[in-house]
Design brief:
Strand content: 5-15%
Strand order of the largest sheet: 3-5-4
Radius of gyration: 35 Å
Number of strands: 7
Distance between the termini: 142 Å
Largest sheet: 3 strands, antiparallel
Helix content: 55-70%
């Protein structure tokens, strides 16, 4: 009885505080309330004005994410014994081209079949950016700059990945103030509360921007822990980004009501372009992960083939052709396991080595035969001499 009474009191206290918290969240995240709706839309109302030029909340949020990403990148460079000011060199090229790529991505894939006029391309203040376009152009730019600076692009991308996840987490709140990137309509009053839903106009929609913001923030924490791990390997952070963010975006994009679709002329294929890019991102992440753990994967592959009794074929092929493991690529190993023969280039090298060995073997056999003939002739001469000496003694 006492336990039941205490449980009832605790439940009432918790429920009352939860209702207060809900009311507070409703006040904050209700687009129709004056708290966040100064001129009908926070994203379009200037947060500050500089020389008469209004800067929106959306722009401030995006820039905040960029600055934090650069700071984290700089600190990671410093921690791993590199010049932290290299982060500014990369940012100088990556940021403008990433924005350009995000803009191209938005214009290349029209929303709901409505084709944007390319004459409006440079009207950035009207909005219209795609994260994946920025990521793609940013990575290409980073790769070129790293090659020019004679640095490893994979290593640099490992240091950029954490800041990128944090910037994306912060940037999603720009979608919040712009009243965009939300999901499907929610009609059940029991689910019309934040963070499950966000109010836009008179209706409630899935707060997909918030889902992605939280997931990318968790991803940022995980990749930072990964970088601190003693078992960290080059390429692991960027592989994690590709797999993790690709999966998050693949799932959340399916909930959004403002997705960009792949159009073939006037025909809508029904394929959400961001989901398609997510699949490619996940695949590239898995490829990078396999490269990072290639020795372990090869060992696991060998053990698996040993159980199947196929390692003898591999060993015999290696001994027969003279192709060593150091000369093999992962593709060559798979090709060799499946066919029992090395890949074309390796096979040509193996045949050349075999021909050289055959020629040397033939030369050796000829020299052996000649030496045997010479030894036979010398034996005959010695026998004749001995026979002649014996005849002379008899006489």
């Amino acid at each position: 009885m006492t336990i039941f009474f205490l449980r009832t009191i605790i439940k009432k206290i918790v429920s009352s505080r939860w209702r207060r918290l809900q009311n507070l969240l409703f006040k904050i995240f209700d687009f129709d309330k004056p708290f966040l709706n100064f001129n009908g839309k926070v994203g379009s109302s200037p947060a500050v004005e500089i020389w008469g030029l209004g800067i929106t909340y959306y722009a401030l949020i995006i820039v905040t994410g960029m600055v934090l990403a650069i700071v984290i990148f700089s600190q990671l460079l410093k921690k791993h014994g590199k010049d932290p000011y290299d982060s500014l060199d990369y940012a100088l090229f990556i940021l403008p081209l990433a924005i350009l790529g995000a803009r191209i991505y938005f214009f290349a894939f029209p929303y709901d079949g409505y084709k944007q006029s390319w004459s409006d391309f440079f009207r950035f203040r009207d909005g219209g950016l795609g994260i994946y376009g920025g990521v793609i152009f940013g990575y290409i730019t980073m790769y070129i700059v790293a090659k020019v600076k004679k640095q490893d692009p994979v290593e640099i991308s490992d240091y950029i990945a954490p800041g990128l996840l944090l910037a994306q987490s912060i940037g999603r709140w720009g979608n919040f103030v712009n009243q965009e990137a939300y999901g499907n309509l929610i009609t059940n009053p029991a689910h019309q509360w934040f963070p499950l839903a966000v109010k836009v106009g008179e209706n409630y929609y899935q707060a997909t921007f918030f889902y992605e913001s939280v997931c990318t923030l968790i991803g940022f924490v995980l990749v930072m822990l990964l970088l601190r791990s003693k078992r960290f390997r080059k390429g692991l952070a960027v592989a994690f980004y590709g797999i993790y963010y690709g999966t998050v975006r693949l799932v959340i994009e399916g909930l959004r009501s403002d997705s960009l679709y792949l159009w073939l002329g006037d025909f809508n294929t029904g394929i959400r372009i961001s989901q398609l890019v997510s699949c490619i991102t996940i695949t590239l992440g898995i490829y990078r992960l396999c490269n990072a753990y290639m020795p372990e994967l090869q060992s696991l592959f060998d053990r698996l083939l040993k159980k199947l009794g196929l390692t003898t074929v591999h060993a015999a092929a290696v001994l027969e052709t003279g192709v060593g493991e150091k000369d093999e690529t992962p593709f060559d190993r798979v090709f060799l396991f499946i066919t029992g023969k090395p890949f074309k280039e390796k096979q040509a090298q193996a045949e050349e080595k075999e021909n050289l060995s055959d020629e040397s073997g033939a030369d050796a056999s000829q020299s052996d035969a000649k030496s045997e003939t010479d030894s036979t002739d010398s034996d005959k001469v010695m026998q004749k001499r001995k026979k002649k000496q014996k005849n002379d003694k008899d006489v």
